[in-house]
Amino acid sequence: MVEQLTGLDSVFRALGDPSRLAMIERLSSGPATVGELAEPLDMTLAGASKHVGVLEKAGLLKRTRRGRERVCELQPASLFAARDWVQRYSIFWNERLDALEVALENDR
To answer: Would you tell me how many other CB atoms lie within 10 Å of the CB of residue 45?
Structure first.
């Protein structure tokens, strides 16, 4: 359980930055080089590479060398794990809020 939370912690931390979110969004339409990820964000290649490293450590993307370029590809398993965690707590809170609504209606 602790290992999973540590993995999720790195995923949520990685997704907490707008530039990295934009990179994930771009990669959802297919592989891209680090330069292609940097271009719309108006950042240096070195800056983009640091962001890509954070995403890679969180298991959100995979970087491979193709000639002189580094190509990034989305790895959705970590996103699915984060989605499942959020969904589990969403169900928990929806049940609690439904019970509160019933209690408030019965109090009237």
So the answer is: 14
pLDDT digits (tens, 9 = 90+) for 7-42: 888 999 999 999 999 999 999 999 999 999 999 998
| Chain centre distance of CA 92 | 22
- Per the structure, the complete domain to which residue 21 belongs is given by 2-81
Distance CA 14, CA 101 (A): 36
pTM for the full predicted model:
0.76
CATH of the domain at 52: 1.10.10.10
Phi and psi angles of residue 87, each rounded to the nearest 5 degrees, phi first:
-65, -40
Structural domain count, the chain = 1
Number of other residues whose CB lies within 10 A of the CB of residue 48: 22
Query: Is 91 within a domain?
Result: no
